[in-house]
């Protein structure tokens, strides 16, 4: 029986009895189907069996879009990154992501073999959840994004959190989440001890083939280490 408290998800397994999970959060206005097509482009033949889990964010009114309801991990009230995210929405989404992480543990995939990934808004939730983890994940993947509520979350970084490898990538011409914002978040996290694999690409608010290649190489190193 499905737990009604859990977010609905799209799932794809690359082999029987997956030993690893990639939990991937989409961006504003998209849904769990958005990044599902990336699986065959990303996965390498020598990887262990993986379960990709793509949750659908809740539908909520978004202030900067005239209050129109859409799938969003939190309300966006202002284009300024420092004031962009509503704290209640971020906190609620982190709780929902933690519930999915707990479900994977119940299905036999512990936190140490789970990668948490996200694009744009989803990446912001990835970072917000990652900095507060007391049981480290296998790694964090934050694409075209930033750390929300930086003053608060910088003070909530746990002792264990910086042990999580972090892949961050950003478009140099991103008009949605400015490159400078992503770079500033990366520098702040480095200051807290995170080892960040940072990548910049000549693109806008998107994902490119070179980025998928670089991410695949980074993920492959995690599977070897695990």
TrEMBL record:
Statement: the UniProt record of this protein carries the keyword Heme: no
GO molecular function: hydrolase activity
One Pfam family, short name: Abhydrolase_2
Keyword list, A-Z: Hydrolase
Domain Phospholipase/carboxylesterase/thioesterase: from-to ranges: 19-217
Family assignment from sequence similarity: Belongs to the AB hydrolase superfamily. AB hydrolase 2 family.
Protein name as annotated: Carboxylesterase
